[in-house]
Amino acid sequence: MPRKIMTTNIQILRDENLSVYPEFDQHRRVVRFEDSTSGLVGFIAIHRERGPLSTGGTRYVSYPNEADAIRDALRLSRAMTAKCVVSGLPYGGAKGVIMARQGGIQKSKELLAAYAGVVESLGGAFRTGEDVGMTEQDVQILLSHSNFFNGKSDIAGDPSPFAAESVALVMDRISQLHLGVSPEKLRIAVKGIGKVGGALVKILAAQGANVSIADVNKDALEQVRGLYPAIAEISPEEIAFTDSDIYAPCALGNEVNEGTIDRFQAKMLCGGANNQLADPRFAKILESHNILYVPDYLANAGGLINVSDELEPDGYHRNRVTERINAIGTLAEKLYLSSRNNTRTFLEEVEEYVRANV
């Protein structure tokens, strides 16, 4: 049921205004939207138009200012194009960001309805769904106002377990090649035990890995520790820099930045968070420190693979989702080995693959 936009202002941002941001990559379309009644403010960035549409989740996050929100949308939408390519999906990348207002306007049904109207106004060019700060319940509200949302509760549902599944699979394949052993014999530090990180911890614990965790949510920590008493708890400020075999960032991005780049002690970084590198050049610096960075959009592609299967002409099929997630593991192995032969970083090899197939 499309919602008529009565109080929402939608503005297409011009390239000359966007070019000041280093994340701008000749994006096809970037819009700013604001709804005076609900308090909705945010941006949608469409990076590339491949096939019938562009796709990517929508996040509800508190940003210090609009510039930071724009930069996040630009960066994430670009990564979504890459994620579509490595997943074998014929779509372009896009991203929606809604600016959460701390202590002010909350994520109300009215705000969600207004956002659904914005997405509806794009006429199907942007298909979106759940991301950070959004819930499966939010998606069902959005779907009551627009059909251009993925993640129907009775079909694909929550993408998080599938993102965790692909992270665990890629971690397994690459650790065997890079470290010579599989994760069940390794020490793995997981930061962020929300929907993706929590699901990843369950997989790793079932494999018998030596897992340590960190999160700011004490209830989540108690729940995981109740299920797995052997799991160690480390402070969120320190877990990234502990002596582990694999560090798995599963919270927010920019974990690897100027202030942290020299502090990591893990042999490999592979997690579910998006935009783990504040700058792509940090992948080369990490490898100079004998730390392998596994590109986040390769590792966590399972979530996209799951929800986007709703877009297939014959409808959602769980077996096809499983096949495509398994294919991510195979592709990760292939690109890792070719990166060693070509003396490139793993990230450079994956980026070259994306450029050749976009």
TrEMBL record:
<keyword id="KW-0560">Oxidoreductase</keyword>
<dbReference type="InterPro" id="IPR036291">
    <property type="entry name" value="NAD(P)-bd_dom_sf"/>
</dbReference>
<comment type="similarity">
    <text>Belongs to the Glu/Leu/Phe/Val dehydrogenases family.</text>
</comment>
<dbReference type="InterPro" id="IPR006095">
    <property type="entry name" value="Glu/Leu/Phe/Val/Trp_DH"/>
</dbReference>
<dbReference type="Pfam" id="PF02812">
    <property type="entry name" value="ELFV_dehydrog_N"/>
</dbReference>
<dbReference type="InterPro" id="IPR016211">
    <property type="entry name" value="Glu/Phe/Leu/Val/Trp_DH_bac/arc"/>
</dbReference>
<feature type="binding site">
    <location>
        <begin position="192"/>
        <end position="197"/>
    </location>
    <ligand>
        <name>NAD(+)</name>
    </ligand>
</feature>
<protein>
    <recommendedName>
        <fullName>Glutamate/phenylalanine/leucine/valine/L-tryptophan dehydrogenase C-terminal domain-containing protein</fullName>
    </recommendedName>
</protein>
<dbReference type="Pfam" id="PF00208">
    <property type="entry name" value="ELFV_dehydrog"/>
</dbReference>
<dbReference type="InterPro" id="IPR006097">
    <property type="entry name" value="Glu/Leu/Phe/Val/Trp_DH_dimer"/>
</dbReference>
<keyword id="KW-0520">NAD</keyword>
<keyword id="KW-0547">Nucleotide-binding</keyword>
<dbReference type="InterPro" id="IPR046346">
    <property type="entry name" value="Aminoacid_DH-like_N_sf"/>
</dbReference>
<feature type="domain" description="Glutamate/phenylalanine/leucine/valine/L-tryptophan dehydrogenase C-terminal">
    <location>
        <begin position="157"/>
        <end position="344"/>
    </location>
</feature>
<feature type="active site" description="Proton donor/acceptor">
    <location>
        <position position="95"/>
    </location>
</feature>
<dbReference type="GO" id="GO:0016639">
    <property type="term" value="F:oxidoreductase activity, acting on the CH-NH2 group of donors, NAD or NADP as acceptor"/>
</dbReference>
<dbReference type="InterPro" id="IPR006096">
    <property type="entry name" value="Glu/Leu/Phe/Val/Trp_DH_C"/>
</dbReference>
<dbReference type="GO" id="GO:0000166">
    <property type="term" value="F:nucleotide binding"/>
</dbReference>
<dbReference type="GO" id="GO:0006520">
    <property type="term" value="P:amino acid metabolic process"/>
</dbReference>
